[in-house]
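Need residues for this backbone.
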């Protein structure tokens, strides 16, 4: 939800007429669930892209962001043996890719998709 909330904030701050958020899910090699969340907002500047998962880092004005949302997302993904990555182009939007294994360790219960 933090990623989607950030995408909404980015779209509200940009002046594009057609604003969109796309969420795609897929299974890769019967081993990994992938979730892509992308927007067509203003993108993340290259000079801050490497900091976005750091605790307390925010590009939002004082009082509007704690800088914890993406840090928490990163920690949750690590705890579940997953990965999170971001690609972004200035003025072209941002895409987050979340990858989670279907099974973790020996004897782990598989994720059941309905």
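Answer:
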């Amino acid at each position: 939800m933090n990623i989607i909330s950030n995408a909404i904030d980015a779209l509200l701050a940009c002046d594009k007429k057609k604003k969109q958020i796309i969420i795609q899910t897929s299974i890769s090699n019967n081993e990994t669930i992938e979730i892509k969340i992308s927007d067509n907002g203003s993108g993340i500047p290259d000079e801050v892209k490497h900091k976005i998962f750091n605790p307390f880092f925010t590009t939002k004005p004082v009082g509007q962001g704690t800088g914890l949302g993406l840090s928490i997302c990163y920690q949750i993904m690590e705890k579940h043996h997953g990965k999170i990555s971001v690609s972004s182009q200035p003025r072209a939007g941002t895409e987050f890719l979340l990858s989670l294994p279907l099974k973790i360790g020996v004897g782990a219960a598989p994720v059941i998709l309905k």
